[in-house]
C-alpha cells in the first residue's frame, strides 16, 4: 500500500508510510528455483498471533501498534486530501478482537458523513529466509474500501521496500492483487493482478535469496501464483545485509485506492484469523 506520504500516528511509535500508488503493469515471467518445501515437523514460528483475547479487547500491544491517524499524502489527488479520506482511530469500535479468535478491523460511516477505520502494524521484524502468512476474510468489498495485508520497511526513506501480499481497491478502477515495490516512490515495482473475494483465504509469501514467492491457500506441491526473482526490478533492497520488514494490516476508506465511499455499504469489516512468520 504505497502512499507517498508523511508520517501517520501510532498509539506506540511512529508509522512511516512509503510511497505513491503505481499504476499496475505485469512484469515479465520470472524464472528461478521454487523454494524447497519444509519436511517433517512444522517449522518453528518466529512470530505469531491467533487473536485469542477477550471479545472487545485490543490486539496484544506487545505484538501490534494501532494507528491513531491516517497518513498525510504528498501531492494528493482528490480522494487523498485529508478532508476526503477516512481516518484511523485507536478505539474498540474499529480495531478489536471479537472473542472468536479473530482480529476485526472495521470501517464506519458517521452521521456527519465522515469515515473511520483502522490499521495495525507490528514492532516485530523479520529478515530474508522467512515465510509470512495471514488468514483473512474481507467483508469489506464495497465502494471506498481499501483493505491490504503487507510488509514494510521504514529504516531509510531513500531505500524503502514493500511487499503487498494482498490488496483490493474500492475505486472500481484498479485490479486487486499482489505487488512488490523496490523503492519508496512507486517507480520500481512488479505487480500481478489476482482475484480477491470475501471467503476465508490464506495469503503467503516466502522470501529467500532467490526472490519472493506468493501463494493463496498454500498446500504442499502447489505452485506460487506469482514469483519475483531477486534483483529482477531496479533498486531491489530485499537481499541487502541486515534488511528487515514488519507486518501491516489495514482497512482504509477513500484515498486513491478506495475512491468514493458514498455508494458503499458500511459498516464494513476485515477479519484476520491469524498471522504467522516462520
Automatic annotation (TrEMBL):
Molecular function via GO: hydrolase activity, hydrolyzing O-glycosyl compounds
Domain GH16: 19-278
Classification via Pfam families: Glyco_hydro_16
InterPro entries (UniProt xref): Beta-glucanase-like, ConA-like_dom_sf, Glycosyl_Hydrlase_16
GO biological process assignments: carbohydrate metabolic process
Segment forming the signal sequence: 1-22
Keywords, ordered alphabetically: Signal
Stretches assigned to coiled coil: none
Family (UniProt): Belongs to the glycosyl hydrolase 16 family.
Name of this chain's protein: 1,3-beta-glucanase
Organism taxonomic ancestry: Bacteria, Bacillati, Actinomycetota, Actinomycetes, Mycobacteriales
Amino acid at each position: 500500500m504505497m502512499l507517498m506520504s508523511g508520517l501517520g500516528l501510532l498509539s506506540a511509535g511512529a508509522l512511516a508510510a512509503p510511497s505513491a500508488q503505481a499504476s499496475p503493469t505485469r512484469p515479465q515471467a520470472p524464472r528461478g528455483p521454487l523454494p524447497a518445501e519444509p519436511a517433517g515437523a512444522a517449522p518453528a514460528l518466529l512470530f505469531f498471533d491467533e487473536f485469542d483475547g477477550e471479545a472487545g479487547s485490543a490486539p496484544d500491544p506487545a505484538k501490534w501498534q494501532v494507528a491513531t491517524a491516517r497518513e498525510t499524502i504528498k501531492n494528493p489527488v482528490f480522494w487523498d486530501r485529508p478532508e476526503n479520506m477516512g481516518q484511523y482511530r485507536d478505539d474498540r469500535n474499529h480495531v478489536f478482537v471479537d472473542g472468536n479468535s479473530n482480529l476485526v478491523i472495521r470501517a464506519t460511516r458517521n452521521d456527519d458523513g465522515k469515515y473511520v477505520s483502522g490499521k495495525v502494524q507490528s514492532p516485530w521484524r523479520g529478515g530474508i529466509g522467512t515465510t509470512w502468512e495471514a488468514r483473512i476474510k474481507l467483508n469489506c468489498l464495497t465502494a471506498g474500501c481499501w483493505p491490504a495485508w503487507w510488509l514494510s520497511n521504514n529504516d531509510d526513506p531513500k531505500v524503502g521496500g514493500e511487499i503487498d501480499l494482498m490488496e483490493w481497491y474500492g475505486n472500481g478502477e484498479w485490479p486487486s492483487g499482489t505487488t512488490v515495490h523496490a523503492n519508496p516512490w512507486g517507480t520500481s515495482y512488479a505487480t500481478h493482478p489476482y482475484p480477491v473475494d470475501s471467503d476465508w483465504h490464506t495469503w503467503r509469501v516466502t522470501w529467500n535469496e532467490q526472490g519472493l514467492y506468493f501463494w493463496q491457500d498454500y498446500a504442499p506441491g502447489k505452485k506460487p501464483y506469482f514469483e519475483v526473482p531477486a534483483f529482477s526490478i531496479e533498486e531491489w533492497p530485499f537481499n541487502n545485509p541486515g534488511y528487515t520488514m514488519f507486518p501491516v494490516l489495514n482497512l482504509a476508506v477513500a484515498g486513491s485506492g478506495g475512491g468514493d465511499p458514498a455508494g458503499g455499504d458500511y459498516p464494513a469489516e476485515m477479519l484476520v484469523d491469524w498471522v504467522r512468520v516462520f
